[in-house]
Amino acid sequence: MVPTAYLKKIFSTATMVSLSLSLIAGCSTPPASSPASESAPATTPSSSTETPAATANLQPKKGGTITIGIANEPDQLDIHKTGMAVANQIAGNLGASLVTQDPDTLEFKPYLAESWDVSEDGKTWTFKIRTGVKFHDGTSMTAKSIAETYQRALDPATAAKVAGSNLSEVESVESPDDTTLVLHLKQPFAPLLQFLSDPGWLQPLSMQAIAQAGDKYGRQPVGVGPWKFEKWENGQSISFTRNEEFAWADPIFKNQGAPYPDRLVYRFISENQTLLAALDSGSIDIARGVVAKDVAKYRDNPQFEVKEMLRNGLGLFVMLNTRRPVFQEIEVRQALNKAINKEAIMKAVIQGEGVVSYGPLPPSLFGYDEGVKDYGLKYQVDEANALLEKAGYTKNAQGIYEKGGKSLKLDLLTQTGTWAQASQLIQAMLKDIGVEVNIVTLEWGALVDTATKGSFDMTLMGYTLNDPDVLYLFLHSSQADNGLNFSYVKDDKMDQLLEKGRTTVDSAARKDVYTEIQKYVVEQAWWVPIYTEKQFNVVRKPVEGVGIHPLRGLMYHDSWVNQ
Amino acid sequence: MKQYILQRLASGLIVLLGISIFSFALIHLIPGDPIRIMLGENATAEQVHALREQLGLNQPLVTQYFHYLSGVLQGDLGTSFKTGRPVLSEILERFPATVKLAASGMFLAICIGITMGVLAARFKDTFIDFSAMSIATLGVSVPSFWLGILLIMLFTVKLGWLPIAGGTGFRDLVLPAVTLGVLASTVISRLTRAGMVEVLSFDYIRTARAKGLGERAVLFVHAFRNAMIPVVTIIGLQIASLLGGTVIIERVFDWPGLGSLAISSIASRDFPLVQGIILFIGVIFVLVNMLVDIVYSLIDPRIEVGQTKEGAS
Predict the structure, then answer these.
(1) Backbone φ, ψ for residue A559 (5° rounding)
(2) Do the chains contact at A7 and B42, CB–CB below 8 Å?
(3) Alpha-carbon gap: A419 to the closest alpha carbon of chain B (Å)
(4) How many CB atoms lie within 10 A of CB A2?
(5) Cβ count near A296 (within 10 Å)
(6) Exposed, middle or buried by CB within 10 Å (0-12, 13-18, 19+), for B93?
(7) How far is it, in rounded angstroms, from Cα A149 to Cα A129?
(8) Which tens digit of pLDDT belongs to each residue from B147-195?
(9) Which of A309, A317, A387, B125 sits a CA distance of 20 to 30 A from A47?
(10) Please, which residues 25-64 of chain B have a Cβ atom closer than 8 Å to chain A?
(11) Which of A12, A77, A220, A413 to mutate to probe the B interface, most B CBs <10 Å?
C-alpha cells in the first residue's frame, strides 16, 4: 500500500489526547478528534503568510528563550523510527529539507538542493546538493549523507514508518559525487517534492552520530538545522540551543543566519486549562492547539496574537460502506448527502470555526476546486426524500423508510469528543427524513479495525495530509481490503483518475486531474463531506515574528524575543 | 520482630502476585489495541501483524502473562511499547518528582490536619471546633482539579506570584503541594479530633488534670499519643497512595511524576509500562503498610507486632 501519512501519528496523538482527557472527565473539554496541535496545518493561500508586518519597524534582537506549550510528548526524535506528528514538528527544528515550498504560492524552490532535474520518463530525479552545510556533530553534509539517510529510511531493518512511506516510490538512491544525489523511482510520483520539502521526516541525518549514539540516538538527535539538541527532560520538556554556525537558512525566511533566540523549548502540557494558564501567566510564549471555544478571549487582547490555519485535510466526513446493498444505490448515497446540514453541525461542534466541505478535498490542499461549492450536494430535505422514493423506498407507519419489508436502519461508527456530538446531530437529521441511525461509539483502534473489516454501515472519518494524493489511500481499489478505502470503492474510472493524479508531475495538468476527481467523487456520493476546521495557536508578546506556513504550521526562524 | 517482617514480606509477595494477575487481566480488557495506536491510521494489515508478532501480542494471554512474570522475577519489567526504553528506568525517572510532591504535600497535610484536629477537640463545641470541622468537610467535598485550577488562576494568572508548568523546582512545588496538603489534611483533622475527643473523656485524663498538670501537658503528653493510632494508619495509607502518583493533581499542575506517566501510558495502551507502574505502586503499598504496623508498636507499647492487636482500637 502506498503509505505516506501524517494521518497515522495524527490519529494516534488524537486518540491519546482524547483518551487521556476523557480519563479526567469534567476537568476539560473533550478535544476535537483532530489533533489540532500536531498536524502541520494550513490556511487558505490568501491569508497564509503573515510575515511579521506589525514588527517591520522593529529590529530583531538576539537572545532570550521561546517556550512553546504543546500537548503531546514524542516517543523519540529519531525521525526514521517515530511515527508521531509531534516528533516531526519538533525534529523539524533540527533539520532542513532538499527543497522548500513558498508559503504564498506553494511553489517548490531550491534549498539544500540548488537545483533538480527530472528525466523524460519522470523516473529519475537528479538533485545538485549545496556545499558548506555541516551537521551539529561537525561532519560535513554531502549528497552521500543524504543518500545514506534515505537508504536507512528504506532499509526494512529500520522499519521507518512515515519517512519510509514518503519514500516508498523510490527504488534506489545513489550519490555519484559529493554534490549529486539521484533518486530512481518505480514510477513517476507527483507528491515526492511535497515530501522532500519537509524539514522533519526527510531531513539529512549524520550516520556518524547515529553509529556513535547507538540505541540512544532517538534521545540525542543530530541534524543540519538552525537548532541543536540540548536536553530532554522526560515528561517535561525538550530544549534546543542556537546553532551558531547556521548559515544555510531556508530562503523563505528573512533571517538567513542563525536563529535570534538563545534557546527554543517545547514544554509538554497535556491539560488544556493548564496550557492556557501557562500562556496567560507567561510561563510559555506560544500555546499550540488552542481549541476554538478558548480562542475568542485572545483575539481581542493586544498582548496576544492568534495564528489560525485551516487543517490540511477533511476534519470530518461520513464514509458510506458500499459493501452494503443499501449503499450500492447511488440515490441513497446522494439522499444522505442532501439530508445532512453541514453548517449546523459545524456551528454546534466547532463553534463555526472552519469551512463547510462539499467535496473530498479542503481548500488548503493543492488541487482544491473552488467550483465544488456549486456542484457539491446541498442540504435539501425534499430532494433527499424524493431520491429515496425514486430508489423504491416508502415510509412505514413509524415514518421510517422501508423497502421490501426492511426498514432503513443504519449503524454509524464514531468516537468520543467532537465526533460524538456530530454523530448525534447526524442521527437527528437523518431521523427527520425517515432514516434511523444507531450510533456505535468505539475507541479509535477498534473503530479502524471495524471499518477495515467492513462490518459497519457508515463511519465518521477525518484525515490530514499535505498532498491530494491522500485520496488514493481512501478511494483506490487497491486500498479496499487492507487500506483506508473503508467505503470499499472499486471503480475503474476512479482508479484511473487517482493513478493519473499521482503520476502527473506537471502541476497545471495535475490540478485538472484533481478537479475531475472532485467532480466524480461528488457525483458518486460515496462520502458525505462535512467540514474542515481551523486550528489555532496563540503567541504571547514579547515574542515577535512567528510565521505561519499553510502546510507546515508555525515557523520560528524569523522569531525573536522583544525584551 | 524479624520473623514478623519476614512473614509480612511473604504475604506481601502473594499480594503482589495477585496485583500482577489482576492488572494484567484488566489492561487487556480495556478496549484499544496498542498496535493500532502505535502504527496509526495508515497501517496495513501486514504491518499490524508483524508488529503484533514482534511484541509477542499474538500469543495466548496466559503465555504472555508467564513470559511477563518470568521477566519480573529476574528484575526485568520489560520495555515500553512507546519509547522502547526499559520500564523500570521510565518509572524511576519519574519517581523522584512524585516523592517530592508527596512528601511536601503530606508534611503540609500533617501540620494542618493535626493542628486543626487538636484545636477542634480542645475547644470542642465552640466556634473554633465548628470552623475547623466545616473547613474539613468542605475540603473533603472539593474536587482536587477544581481547587488546583482555582489556585492557578489566583496565584499564577492573576497575581503572577508562582509559576506553572515550569519544572520541579521549589516555586513550582508550592501550588501542587498546597493543593495536595489542604485536601489530604481534612481526613487527618477529622480523625485527630475524633481520637482526641474520645481520649480526653477517659478517666486517666481527668486524673492527670486533677493532679494539676497544665493543659498543654495533658493534651500532648497524655492524650495525643493515644489518639494517634487511627491517624497514623490513615497517614500511612495516604502516603502510600500519594507515592503512587496523584494523577489528577499531577496533570493539572503538569507535574512530571508517576501519575502523569500512568495516564499517558494508559492512553497509549503501553501495556508493559502500565503493568510496571501498577506493580511498583503495589510494592509501595505493601512496604508502607508494613512500616505503619511497626510504627504502631512504637506509639503504643501495648501493641506488639506479630501478635493480635486487640489494644489497638
Answers:
(1) -85, 150
(2) yes
(3) 16
(4) 18
(5) 12
(6) middle
(7) 14
(8) 888 999 899 888 888 888 777 788 889 999 999 998 888 889 988 898 8
(9) A317
(10) 31-46
(11) A12
**Cell reading at A48:** 497564509
DSSP letters along A329-391, please?
Answer: SHHHHHHHHHH--HHHHHHHHHTT-EEE-SSSS-TTSTT--TTHHHHSPP--HHHHHHHHHHT
pLDDT at A49 over 70: no
The pLDDT, as a whole number, for residue B309 is 44
d(CA A531, CA A560): 35
Instruction: Say how many C-beta atoms besides its own lie within 10 A of residue A299's C-beta.
Output: 12
What is the complex's ipTM, to 2 decimals? Answer: 0.78
Q: What does the pLDDT average to over A30-49?
A: 34
B169 to chain A, any CB pair closer than 8 A? The answer is: no
State residue A487's pLDDT score: 95
Q: Would you say B85 and B94 are in contact if contact means Cβ atoms under 8 Å apart?
A: no
* Packed helices A7-23 and B258-267: angle between N→C axes, nearest 10 degrees: 130
Q: Please state whether the predicted TM-score (pTM) of the whole model is above 0.90.
A: no
Interface check for B167 against chain A (CB to CB < 8 A): the answer is yes
* A180, A186, A191, A194 alpha-carbon torsion, rounded to 10°: -20
Per-residue pLDDT of B61-72, as tens digits, reads 888 888 888 888
Please report, for residues A134, A538, B75, B273, the alpha-carbon distance to residue B84 in angstroms, rounded to integers and kept in the order given. Answer: 30, 33, 17, 10
How many C-beta atoms surround the C-beta of residue B60 within 10 A?
8
B94–A76 C-beta distance less than 8 A: no
The single-letter DSSP state of residue B256 is: -
pLDDT range class, residue B45, cuts 50, 70, 90: low
In this structure, how many other beta carbons lie within 10 angstroms of the beta carbon of residue B275?
24
CA A321 to chain centre: 24
What pLDDT, on the 0 to 100 scale, is given for residue B305? 59
Q: Which of B29, B30, B35, B41 to mutate to test the interface with A (most CBs of A within 10 A)?
A: B41
Question: Residue A26: closest CA among chain B residues belongs to which residue?
Answer: B145
Distance CA B250, CA B180 (A): 10
Which of B44, B145, B267 is closest, CB to CB, to A482?
B44
Specify the residue for cell string 482539579. B145
Nearest-CA neighbor of B256 among B78, B96, B86? Answer: B96
Strands A401-403 and A553-555: unpaired
Selection from A1, A2, A11 nearest residue A315 by Cα: A11
Tell me the one-letter amino acid at B155. Answer: F
Q: Which residues of A touch B253 (CB under 8 A)?
A: 274
Alpha helices in B125-270 (DSSP H): 127-141, 144-151, 170-200, 203-210, 215-217, 224-243, 247-252, 258-267
DSSP labels for A188-232? Answer: --TTHHHHHT-TTTT----HHHHHHHGGGGGGS---SSSEEEEEE
3-state secondary structure of B170: helix
A410 backbone dihedrals φ, ψ, rounded to 5°: -125, 145
Task: Give the whole-angstrom CA distance, residue A132 versus residue A248.
Answer: 8
The whole-number average pLDDT for the span A51-75 is 80
Burial pattern A466-487, b for ≥16 Cβ within 10 A else e, equals: bbbbbbbbbbbbbbbeebbbbb
- C-alpha angle A266/A312/A380, rounded to 5°? 135
Which residue type, as a one-letter code, is found at position A550? P
Tens digits of residue pLDDT in A376-401: 999 999 999 999 999 999 999 899 99
Q: Which residues contact A227 (CB under 8 A, 6 or more apart)?
A: A93, A94, A240, A241, A242, A243, A259, A264
Cβ neighbours of A382 (radius 10 Å): 9
Which pairing describes strands A553-555 and A547-549: parallel, antiparallel, or unpaired? antiparallel
